[in-house]
Amino acid sequence: MSISPEIVRKLEAFVSEKSERYDALARDIWEHPEPSHQEARSSARYREWLAAEGFRVTEFPEMPYSFCAERGPDGEGPVIAFMGEYDALPGMSQACATVREPLVPGGAGHACGHNLLGMGALVAAEGLAALLEAEGTRARVRFYGCPAEESLGRIPLVKAGRFNDVSAALTWHPADVNTVHRYTTSANLSLVVRFKGRASHAGMAPHAGRSALDAVQLFNLAIEFMREHSPPGTLFHYVITDGGDRPNIVPEHAAVHLYVRAPVAADVHRAMKRVRNAIRGACLMTETTADITIKAGKCDFIPNPAVQEAIYEAMRALPLPVPSIEERAFAVALQKTVAPADRCATLVPIGAPLSLLKKPLHLEVGDFGEGRRIGGSLDTGDVSYIVPTGQLNAATWPLGVGAHTWQSCAASGSSWAMKAARYAGMSLALAGYLLANQPARLDAARAAHRRVPPYRSTMDV
Ligand SMILES: [Zn+2]
Questions:
Q1: CA distances from 137 to 33, 67, 85, 368 (A)
Q2: Cα of 61 to ligand 1 centre, how many Å?
Q3: For residue 85, how far is its CA from the centre of ligand 1 (angstroms)?
Q4: 214 Cα: distance to centroid of ligand 1 (angstroms)
Q5: b/e string for 77-104 if b means 16 or more Cβ within 10 A?
Q6: Using one digit for the tens of pLDDT, what is the confidence trace for 258-272?
Q7: How far is the CA of 218 from the centre of ligand 1 (A)?
Q8: How far does the centroid of ligand 1 lie from the alpha carbon of residue 237, in Å?
């Protein structure tokens, strides 16, 4: 079934009627940035909105400010889920301007565009619910409120089985290009190792002390040597978060914060066996003890081809947003603030052509990243191990502007970004429509998903 122009018109009419309200919501979240684990206001805004639109809202106990909102016949038909995020980044406060200008010095800001991400997912959920209800299709639509993406992520929700009955999970991310998210991401694990030794006067009785800092240094040295003999793509990055108190005391305590990153989750588990051996070795050599705290961990993202295809078809069926003269001028000015040599950093990892950079905005649908893996990690990865999952990127930011920059924060508050977020939401709604109405697509998604390895969180090490 191809996508009929009538369905596209219906969806566009539904969304355009509410566009001012959607944009005001995304702008409001942008103006009230809340970092991970503090999203009380943002989460409440979505919950209240969805409840008023007839969604059954359930808050989850696994994480503060997480929830699910469902519309459609209770317990019947496939479940099409959209995942929304709303956390901001500490220290990234920035005005919607083309110069560096924090709104609140040192304050948080939406430099990853999650104010847009949540709104786009909301457009998707409401748009799809409206289409399905108009046609009497027996299917359910869900919006998952996913807090703390920038730190722990939705892993506790995945582990608690909150996604288990989903037929297809869809999401998107603000970016500088429009593309179906063909590329995969890396798995990771964040852990802190605290060594404990014995304090002593470093001048009078160093022999009586056992240095926890020595243990940290020997452990880090082991990690350095391990790099050469680890499979390609396995990365270790660390910082010493505690090096003791002062040089004339043999350090009783010292700690290192380590990230283990690898192509797939199973590689992280394998690497962690060796990391544990290195911790044991450091303890043995220094006569210290160690304590491990697992902070966070994400699986690699496994795109489901059937879901991705529905997203790609939907993206191409919808008219792309058109920038106004002012929006274009803003994009040109913002793009100029990124050094020309740095602009390719967003495009190279996903294999997008650098010729795109001749323009300020990406105004077509790309198809980038097939067979590629980026170094970053996403909590959507864990969802993709549980159910068929797909996602897209939408060009909310000027070409060459990457996430977690003041430029992306500035752009995320702009009217252009709102238009692009609504386009992303409509694309996901239309993709959900294809999946809900065509059993063969969901069959294909399920068949592909059977090849995904069993889920084991990288945090379970
Ligand atoms: Zn993000």
A1: 37, 25, 27, 33
A2: 23
A3: 8
A4: 37
A5: ebbbbbbbbbbbbeebbbebebeeeebe
A6: 999 999 999 999 999
A7: 35
A8: 21
Q: Is the dihedral of CA 99, 105, 106, 108 positive or negative?
A: negative
List CB contacts of 64: < 8 A, sequence separation 6 or more.
Answer: 37, 40, 147
Q: Could you tell me which of 367, 365, 369, 363 has the C-alpha nearest to residue 315?
A: 365
Please give the distance, rounded to the nearest whole angstrom, from the Cα atom of residue 150 to the centre of ligand 1.
7
Strand segments (E) across 176-233: 179-180, 187-196
- The CATH number for 282's domain is 3.30.70.360
Beta bridge partners of 84: 145
Q: Is residue 156 part of a domain?
A: yes
Q: From the CA of 134, how far away is ligand 1's center (Å)?
A: 33
What pLDDT, in 10s, does the model give residues 117-139? 999 999 999 999 999 999 999 99
With 90 as the cut, is the pLDDT of residue 75 above it?
no
Report how many domains make up the chain. 2
* Rounded distance between C-alpha atoms, residue 300 and residue 260, angstroms: 13
| Ligand 1 centre distance from Cα of residue 195 (Å) | 33
Close Cβ partners of 439 (under 8 Å, ≥ 6 residues apart):
none
**Choice among 70-79, 118-127, 247-256, 293-302 with the minimum mean pLDDT:** 70-79
| 318 and 254 within one domain | no
Distance 378 CA to ligand 1 centre (A): 8
Distance 377 CA to ligand 1 centre (A): 10
Domain span holding position 292:
187-297
Q: How confident is the model at residue 461 (pLDDT cuts 50, 70, 90)?
A: confident
CB 281 within 8 A of CB 243: no
Q: How far apart are CA 55 and CA 64, in angstroms?
A: 20
Same domain, 270 and 174: no
Cα angle at 163 between 270 and 448, to 5 degrees?
A: 65
Residues in the chain, overall count? 461
Q: Which two tokens stand for residue 148?
A: 């703390």
Amino acid identity, position 124: A
